[in-house]
Structures are given as structure tokens and as C-alpha cells.
Amino acid sequence: SAIVSTNPRPEDFLSVIALPLPHRPLFPGFYMPIYVKDQKLLQALIENRKRSAPYAGAFLVKDEEGTDPSIVASPDSSDNKTIDSLKGKELLKRLHEVGTLAQITSIQGDQVVLLGHRRLRITEMVEEDPLTVKVDHLKENTYNKDDDVIKATSFEVISTLREVLKTSSLWKDHVQTYIQHVGDFNYPRLADFGAAISGANKLLCQEVLEELDVDKRLKLTLELVKKDMEISKLQQAIAKAIEEKISGDQRRYLLNEQLKAIKKV
């Protein structure tokens, strides 16, 4: 008789522990290390891994104006709390509804390494501590892979990534690896890739995460990588101008020193 695997699949998880991400959303296919200070939450994640259920939901924290996203402003400014100290509904209302099902790949001390799998939307709270939520698993809207606009936008994203690669060493490893396998990419994954490695602020990245229309998602990503290309070129121009100024100053200094030496002879 056939052996039936008892290991649950990612899509089987309809309720998950909610992990707050203060600084950036997690995209499917990407790793992210986070630090979990709440011991009860950390223990729950460890127990889940032992039970072959190594998944949680990773959700970006909403901004409070003028505050660090990892700090929660209270009416009494001397009594600010960290996001880790919020529980239940108080934490839930600070999270974006759309996040990512994340595999817990390792836990070392309070460092938890996540691997993004698929998009989720919170539907309701199940438990308060640690915050556990019911979720819907989200899929991209149906799209035509042969659509000329989608093709053109994706090629422009790839072309821009190549341009940034020429000017930014920070992107080099990411982009080279991806472009080597460009034959087997799919359009939604390309959009996620560009947004995930971009220097865009977290709310713009969250927009890409929430967008299920593939054409719109690609266009959002194209805006982000184009902006990164402009910044990269500007950095190059500034660096070149400074180098030219320094080399000019050095030449003047050397000439002055030579003149002093000649006068002494």
C-alpha cells in the first residue's frame, strides 16, 4: 500500500501564530532573521517545530507617526512599550492584515530565521497570548503569461536590475543569482524579487506584497527598482565629484611642496 505523508503542507495551516515585523515585510522565497524577546512566544515556536508544524504568520507592524515601529507610543511618553510587549487585540490592531506564511528554519537563542512561503490575510483572532490568528491563503489573480504589457514590464524590471548591478555592489550577488535562472522565473516571483532587494521603504514594499494583480505588482516593483537605479547613479556622481576634488587638492599640495623644495635649493 502507498505510504501517506503525515507532514502538513503549508496550505494546511489555517491558523498561525502572528509574528510582528517592525522594519520590512517578508516576501515569499526570501529568508529573514528576527529576534523574539517574548519567552512565551519563543517557546510556542519551538514547540511547533517539534510537532512538525514549523510555520508562523509574519506581518508588518503599522507605523505610528513619529515613532520607531518597534516602540509603541503611549499617552504617557515615559511609559513607552516595545511591540513585543503587546498582546491580543492590542497587537492585532498594529499589524497589517496581509502578511506571509513563514517557515521557521532555525531557532538559536532568541534568533528565529524565517523563510517566506505564500501570502496570507488575517481574518480573526483565535488566541491572545501568543497572538494566534485565522488566515486566508492568498493567490495571485489569473493572468495571461503572453500578455504584451506584462512581458514588456517584466523585461524592463530585469533590464533595470542589470543596470543597478553595474553601479551597486550591494545588489551584485542577489541579481547575478537571479538573472542566471531568468529562464525559469515567473512574473509574480520576479515582482517579489525586485521589491524584496530594493532599498524602498517598508510601506512601498507592503504595497507590492498586498497586490494580487500581477500586472500592477510588476509596475509597482518597476517604480521601486527605477528609483534605486537613480539613487545608485547619483551616489556614483557624488563619489566621482569628491574623488576629483581630492585628487585636485592632492595635486596642488604636491606642487606647493615641490615649489618649497625648489626655493630652498
Structural summary, described in words:
The protein has 265 residues and is α+β, with helices and mostly antiparallel strands. It is built from 7 helices and 8 strands. A hairpin with an 8-residue loop joins strand 4 (71-72) and strand 5. Helix 5 (187-197) packs parallel to helix 7. The termini are far apart. The model is unreliable at 1-5 and 74-78 (pLDDT under 50).
Jot down its keywords.
five-stranded mixed beta barrel, Archaeosine Trna-guanine Transglycosylase, Chain: A, domain 4, 265 residues, disordered N terminus, 2 domains, alpha+beta
Briefly characterize the structure:
Helices cover 44% and strands 21% of the residues.
Mean pLDDT: 84
Report Rg: 24 Å
By CATH, the superfamily of the largest domain comes out as LON domain-like
How many helices? The count is 7
Number of strands: 8
What is the distance, rounded to the nearest whole angstrom, between the alpha carbons of the first and last residues? 101 Å
Q: What is the CATH architecture term of the largest domain?
A: Roll
* Shape by Cα distribution: extended
Poorly predicted tracts of residues: 1-5, 74-78
- Total count of domains: 2
